[in-house]
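Input structure tokens:
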């Protein structure tokens, strides 16, 4: 009597026909003709070759190899954020494997890389202003008097000599009434850089020094 192996190896697939692993099919105990009970989503076929970056998919007749980028870190060309790859296949044209250096860069199809935005310098300056924090009334006015020799009244006079209308009213009230000064305030920034004509780098240096007061 012929003796059959109790199990045979079979290839386990997922719902899309992609190879998962080898498993066993067991000999049917109710038959005596070598019939095996093939588990669901399994096929009798040679185990596919392992290829880095690819996954094997059963076509019904043979194995085909599909690019597989699952688990890789890729980035949106639009936002620079990490994008999750959940399905096998070629990478979408909307992503890249190159990380975006920072917010000041954007993707260029022509250069096939991240390039600095045209307004990067302006964006960096705005970010520096936004993150500078605030100074108390005493800190700001004392520092201006130390650095420029201008007290509160001199600042108001400088505004009155260079400005008019609603802008003058706003900056005069800001100087006379505000309890905290901020470089992200457009009116105050323009007053420092355009009216008092303090260089941008010097504004930040002066701001840092005022924190020690």
């Amino acid at each position: 009597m012929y003796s059959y192996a109790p199990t045979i190896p079979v290839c386990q697939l997922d719902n899309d026909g992609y190879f998962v692993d080898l498993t066993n099919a067991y000999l049917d105990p109710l038959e005596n003709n070598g019939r095996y009970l093939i588990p669901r989503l399994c096929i009798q076929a040679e185990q596919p070759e392992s290829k880095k970056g690819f996954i094997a998919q059963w076509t019904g007749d043979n194995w085909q190899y599909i690019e597989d980028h699952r688990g890789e870190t890729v980035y949106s060309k639009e936002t620079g954020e990490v994008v999750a790859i959940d399905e096998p296949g070629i990478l979408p044209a909307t992503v890249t494997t190159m990380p975006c250096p920072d917010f000041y860069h954007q993707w260029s199809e022509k250069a096939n890389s991240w390039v600095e935005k045209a307004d990067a310098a302006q964006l960096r300056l705005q970010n520096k202003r936004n993150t500078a924090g605030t100074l108390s009334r005493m800190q700001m006015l004392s520092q201006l008097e130390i650095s420029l020799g201008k007290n509160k009244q001199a600042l108001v006079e400088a505004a009155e000599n260079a400005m008019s209308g609603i802008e003058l009213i706003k900056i005069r009230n800001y100087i006379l009434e505000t309890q905290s000064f901020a470089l992200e305030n457009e009116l105050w920034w323009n007053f420092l850089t355009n009216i008092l004509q303090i260089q941008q780098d010097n504004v930040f240096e002066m701001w840092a020094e005022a924190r020690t007061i």
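The chain is about 30% helix and 25% strand. The chain has three domains: 7-67, 72-117, 122-211.
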